[in-house]
Amino acid sequence: MSHYNVTVVIGNPGDKSRTKALALAIAEALAEALPDGRSIESADLVIAATPVYKGSYTGLFKHLFDLVDPNALVGRPVLLAANGGSERHALVVDHQLRPLFAFFRALTVPSAVYAAEADFDG
What we know:
The chain is α/β, with parallel strands linked by helices and 122 residues long. It has a single domain, classed as 3-Layer(aba) Sandwich (Rossmann fold), CATH 3.40.50. The protein is 28% helix and 21% strand. Strands 1, 2, 3, 4 and 5 form a five-stranded parallel beta sheet that branches.
């Protein structure tokens, strides 16, 4: 089996972050086939997860990708994930995240993961 270098990018890395919980749950589900990676630019697959604040991804998330080389993700698969207070924010995946990764000419996975507040326990 091939090994893949996977990087999980989280727009809100706080201890109680639901985005962090969502992204890490996805990564854990893929862990056997896709071990952890250490950097965005060398990853075989990027899982990009962010909370939705004011109808968009976080400033921290955007700033991180502002630092990535524009050619670093060409042809690289990217799984998009987001979470927000309600289902209405699910559009952020297609209206905010996909265009960001289109700039990088990455291959965004057609299906994304979105979780609303009701999808989390507690």
